[in-house]
Amino acid sequence: xxxxxxxxxxxxxxxxxxxxxxxxxxxxxxxxxxxxxxxxxxxxxxxxxxxxxxxxxxxxxxxxxxxxxxxxxxxxxxxxxxxxxxxxxxxxxxxxxxxxxxxxxxxxxxxxxxxxxxxxxxxxxxxxxxxxxxxxxxxxxxxxxxxxxxxxxxxxxxxxxxxxxxxxxxxxxxxxxxxxxxxxxxxxxxxxxxxxxxxxxxxxxxxxxxxxxxxxxxxxxxxxxxxxxxxxxxxxxxxxxxxxxxxxxxxxxxxxxxxxxxxxxxxxxxxxxxxxxxxxxxxxxxxxxxxxxx
Amino acid sequence: xxxxxxxxxxxxxxxxxxxxxxxxxxxxxxxxxxxxxxxxxxxxxxxxxxxxxxxxxxxxxxxxxxxxxxxxxxxxxxxxxxxxxxxxxxxxxxxxxxxxxxxxxxxxxxxxxxxxxxxxxxxxxxxxxxxxxxxxxxxxxxxxxxxxxxxxxxxxxxxxxxxxxxxxxxxxxxxxxxxxxxxxxxxxxxxxxxxxxxxxxxxxxxxxxxxxxxxxxxxxxxxxxxxxxxxxxxxxxxxxxxxxxxxxxxxxxxxxxxxxxxxxxxxxxxxxxxxxxxxxxxxxxxxxxxxxxxxxxxxxxxxxxxxxxxxxxxxxxxxxxxxxxxxxxxxxxxxxxxxxxxxxxxxxxxxxxxxxxxxxxxxxxx
Lengths: 294, 366
What we know:
The structure holds two protein chains of two kinds.
Chain A: H1 2-9, H2 16-28, H3 37-61, H4 70-77, H5 79-112, H6 118-125, H7 127-130, H8 133-144, H9 155-183, H10 187-196, H11 201-212, H12 214-230, H13 233-237, H14 244-254, H15 258-282
Helix pairs in contact in A: 3-15, 4-15, 5-9, 5-12, 9-12, 10-11, 12-15, 14-15
Chain B: E1 2-13, E2 16-27, E3 31-35, H1 42-50, E4 57-62, E5 65-66, E6 77-80, H2 92-102, H3 107-120, H4 136-149, E7 154-158, H5 166-183, E8 186-191, H6 194-200, E9 203-208, E10 211-216, H7 218-223, H8 228-233, E11 236-246, E12 251-254, E13 257-260, E14 273-278, E15 284-285, E16 292-303, E17 307-313, E18 319-325, E19 338-343, E20 349-353, E21 361-363
Parallel strand pairs in B: 3-8, 3-9, 6-7, 7-8
Antiparallel strand pairs in B: 1-2, 1-4, 4-5, 9-10, 11-12, 11-14, 11-21, 12-13, 14-20, 15-19, 16-17, 16-19, 17-18
Helix pairs in contact in B: 2-3, 2-4, 3-4
C-alpha cells in the first residue's frame, strides 16, 4: 500500500521509465513476418532453377580422378584459352567503342532534334532480334567476299567484318541503355545551356552528355562484351577460330569435363564484369535533379 | 542608344504563327520582361534572341551587330533556364567556370572569377558541392552565376523562379534585380507572373497570341492598359458593360446610373455598348471616392488578409468589386445592405466596344 502511495502521489516522478524498456522492446521488436509463403516458394524455385545447373556443372567438372581439379588446370594451362579470351575481349572492346560512337550521337540527335524518328530508330535497332545471326553472317559474307569491297580474303578484313557484325548485334542493348540514360537527364536544356556558354557539338557530347550517361554506357558496354565473348555462330562462319566461342565449341567436342570448367570460369568472369559495372557506376553522379526544389 | 533591337520578328512552326511582327528596342542595361499567358510566344521570342530558334522573318541586332542567323554558341548571350540546367556531373565551381573554360580563360583568372561570382550569389563555400546537393533556390543562383561568368552582352531568363516556392521566389527576384543593377547588364526576363514582371522590370512587354499587346513601364501597363487583354491580364479588374450616352463628353450609363470618364470616348458612338474597366482598389465605399457613384446591394464580403473585397450587385447581373484595406476598427457592410460606391472619372477606362465579357471581375495572381 505504502509503495503505491510513494510512487503515485508525487506527480513529478516519472514512473514510465521503469516500464519503458519493456514497451520499447515491444515496439522495436515487431512480430516477425516472413512474408507470403507462396512468394517464398516461387523465389526458392527460381533460385534452384538458377543454382542447380551451376552446381551440377561444377560436380561434373570435378569428376576427374584422382585429380578432381584436372579440368581446371588443363584450361588454365592451355594457351588457347587465354588467347581466345584475349582475342574476343579485344574484339569486344573495339565493338563497344564503335557502337558507342554510332549509338550515342544518334540517340542524342534523335531525342534532341527529331523525336518523331524515335520509333523508327528503335525498330531498326531491334532488327538483330529478328534476323538470326546465321542469316546476318551469310549476308555479310556474300557482300564482303565479292567486289567492290573484298574483306573476307584477309584476316584483318574478316576481323573488320566480325566487328561490324557484333556492332549490329549490340544495337538493341546499347541503344536501349543509352536511350534510358538520355531520358533521365534534361538533354535539351543541358545542350542549350552548354551552347549558350559557347560550346560546340563535340564539347557538348564529350563534356556534358557522355559523363552524364556513364552508368548507362557501362551497362550497354558490358552487355555487349558478354555477348561478344560467348558468340559462336558469326565467329565460326567467318573462320575466326581464335575467338572464344569457337574455342569453347571445339573443346566440348574433344574433352568431357573441360567444357564444364570453362563454362564456370567464363560465368565467373561475367559476374566480375557485373561487379565492375556496379563499382564503376557507383560514383557516377548520385542523383540527377534538373528541376524543382529539393 | 538602342542596344538590343528586334525588328519585324516573326516565327512560324509549320502553319502555326508563334510570334508575329515583334518590334522592340531596348537600351543598354535595361531590364525588360515579356509577360503573357502560356503559348503567347514569349519564350519563343527569348529563344530567338538566344539563337535556339531562328526567326522566319525579321532581324535581331545586339550592339549594332546583326545576330539573326548566328548559332547560339557564337552569340555572347547568357541564359538562365526554368529547369536550372546545371551540369549534374560537375561541381558548382565547375559549372560556373564551364563557359570560361570554353573561352580558354587562363586558369588563375577563371578561378578568381568563379570565386567572385560565388561571393556575388552568396554561396562562397559551396563551390565543391554538386548541383543535387543544393536547394532549388541555390541551384538557380548557381545557374545565374554560370550565365554571368561569360560576361554576356545580354542576359536571358526563362521563367527562372517558377519552380521555386513563394518565399524563395520573392527573395531571389530581389537578388536578381540587385545583381542586374550592379552589373548593368541588359536583361530580358520571361514570366507569366504579373507581380514578378511589374516588380522587376524597367519596361514590360505584354504579349498575347504571338503579338505585342503593349510595351510600357510597369505603372503605365497597370494604370493605363492599352487593350482589353492587358487590362484583364494585368492586375484585378471589374469589367462591366456600359452604354455610351455622350461620347464627346465621356458620359456613360451603367445599370441606369451615370458614370463619367476623364476624356472623350473614342471608337464608340452614342448609344453603343462598351466595356468599362475599373480597378477594385480605385473604388471606395461611400461618397468620398470620386465623382462617379454606383448604388446597389452588397452581395458578398470576402476577407483576403490585408484586403477586404466587397461585391456590389448591379442591375442586369453585373457586379462591382471594391477593395479596402483591412482595418480592425471598421465594420464591413453586411450582405444585403444597399451601399454607394464611388470612384473618380480617371479610374474609369473604356477598353473596347461591345459588351463586357461574361466575367465581371478578372483576378490574375496577386
